[in-house]
Amino acid sequence: TEFVRDVPLSKVVHVASIMREPGLVLYSGHEPKIALHAMQEQEVEFAFVVDSRSQLRGVINLDEVKEAISHNVAKLDEVVKESPLQVGPDQPIEEVIPLSASSDNPIAVVDEDGKLIGEVPHVALLEGMSGRENNNDSAR
Q: Where is each CBS domain found (predicted)?
């Protein structure tokens, strides 16, 4: 028990135990007007964007959606920010901490095929570090 007591939680708690259901998910083929309506309806500042196979394509924020509309962009995949921060469910949360510190948005959790399966909001990361795992709790 002495060994376990000396190991930081961030080394043994994995992303899968703290991740939540992804917030708003949009499809890359959606028109920006559809995205704007969904984001305003759910009162969110950003959304994950996936393709037709649910593979993560990127992330887009409300201002980018509004700008896309003003430039008559046809589909989100023309303006989505590629390479959003992402981790796998088996990664220790210790590896997520630096990513989280460099982003205002939750970190995307993807499976081995690149499919979006969850997100790690900042609050979930803090709870995981303190030992309060929420195991896929959808409350944000």
A: 78-123
DSSP-based three-state secondary structure for 104 = coil
Of 73, 102, 108, 89, the C-alpha closest to 14 is 89
In the chain, where are the structural domains located? 10-129
Written as six digits, the tokens of 69 are 């509309």
**pLDDT tens readout for residues 73-95:** 999 999 997 767 899 999 998 88
Burial environment of residue 133 by CB neighbours within 10 A (0 to 12, 13 to 18, 19 or more) = middle
Q: Are 107 and 20 in contact (CB under 8 A)?
A: no
Separation of CA 33 from chain center: 22
pTM for this one?
0.80
Decide: 46 and 60 in contact? Cβ < 8 Å.
yes
Digit-coded pLDDT (tens) for 92-118:
988 888 787 777 788 899 999 999 999
